[in-house]
Amino acid sequence: MKKAQSIFLLLLVLWLLPALAWAQQLPDFKTLVREAAPAVVNISTVQKVPEESQDPFSQFRGPDGEEIPDIFRHFFRGFPEIPQAPRRGNPAPRSLGSGFIISDDGYVLTNHHVVDDADKVIVRLSDRREIEAEVIGSDARSDVALLKIEASDLPYVKIGESSAVEVGEWVLAIGSPFGFDHSVTAGIVSATERSLANDTYVPFIQTDVAINPGNSGGPLFNLNGEVIGINSQIYTRSGGFMGLSFAIPMDVAMEVADQLRDTGSVTRGWLGVVIQEVSRDLAESFGLDKPAGALVVNVMSDSPAQAAGLKEGDVIVQFNGNDIALSSDLPHQVGRIKPGEKVRVEVVRDGRRERVIATIGSLPDDDQLAGRGRGESGTPPASDTSLGLVVSALTQEQRSNWNLNAGVVVTQVNEGPGAAAGLISGDVITMLNGENIETPDQFSRVVAELPQDRAVPMRIVRRGSAMFIPLRLTP
After folding, report:
1. Segment 79-98, tens digit of pLDDT
2. In sequence order, what are the residues at sequence separation of 6 or more whose Cβ sits closer than 8 angstroms to the Cβ of residue 136?
3. Which of 256, 331, 248 is nearest to 74 (CA)?
4. Nearest-angstrom CA–CA distance, 141 and 181
5. pLDDT in tens, 94-125
6. Element (H, E) at 304
7. pTM for this model (two decimals)
8. What are the domain boundaries of the chain?
9. Active-site annotation, residues
10. How many CB atoms lie within 10 A of CB 184?
11. Considering only CA atoms, which of 454, 453, 451, 457 is closest in space to residue 470?
């Protein structure tokens, strides 16, 4: 009996050993939280309510008027609250997010969307003091805001290098989800340099850390107690945490903060190209060994790209000495170059690798980017039956509305290679197999000279957006 018990205990110990060893490898966050938490703050804002009455249920709608939150919503927007009757005068501060102190003299980092349009910003410290903050500057493109409070000898965070972050490492967030100050959640880095829609100048750090409304603007720490990111967005259909959260890398945030502190605004580098991803078929059509790089679908007028001689159909494979694996890599790198600097850009053009030197410009406002490159007149309509397409010349109105200099518009799509390539009525074909398309007759000539059973690139403009698609003729 005793022998059986001894054998059982031995087996139990052997079974538990791996679990005990694994438990010893798990990080202990207690010291990190104890040292870092005092530098994390709660951000509240006050906004004036218009005197006229408002729809009391408007709080249930998001920033675009939708009734159900969609993905990639900022933490505090669209989060349901109990409807209240309109109030006059100054409302009480509303807790919207988090922030953290980066210097002992009172500079605080948070998100732009936390303080946007605020009439008053209140920073609540870990010792429960509430101090009105001055917004030194706020940048919508990076979603970073720099605040200043009048205080001294404050606790502040250690700034880490986000460029050293690796997928799989442990990270920790401290913030005020749902108004609960200094809540701590932990997880791992899921991906780095992640691009999101409408945020092309931020290479986000993706994590599985539980982030909820109120965490926005709070710090993301590594195990060394250094801040490596600012929690900014979540992937959600319900408004709550679903396992995907995104942080602004501190390398980017500190560059923005330095500019906001020095000038109150942010200047970014600008090349002036519209790009798209290179698919496997497009890589074949452009003579690339593999699908990589950023395919130039449009070169803006009066831009650094135009001055450098970049062309539509170029595939940018290297920028300033850094390889471009995905098209989303390019905006991150261009934006961090100071305007006026010269950079080397390597492209694949007509199957050959070439190098150009570009002098980076300053990124214009969104309004200044619109309306570049308007065109002139057109020629009579024509048709091309070998692709199953009917095309016609652009009218002056179409050229003006779509900002086009030349091309032919698809008026009918029948069965054939054009339909197989995904063309639809209304598409404007501006380039085929490396040749700019000026007239329907020229288009027919280029089609007649296309190689058989090999993909060739075709540039189209669809509803104002340019893209390349592969076209393949079969014998």
Report:
1. 443 344 444 555 656 657 99
2. 107, 146, 147, 148, 260, 261, 264
3. 248
4. 27
5. 657 999 999 999 999 999 999 998 899 999 99
6. helix 304-308
7. 0.69
8. 27-266, 269-369, 382-472
9. 113, 143, 216
10. 18
11. 457
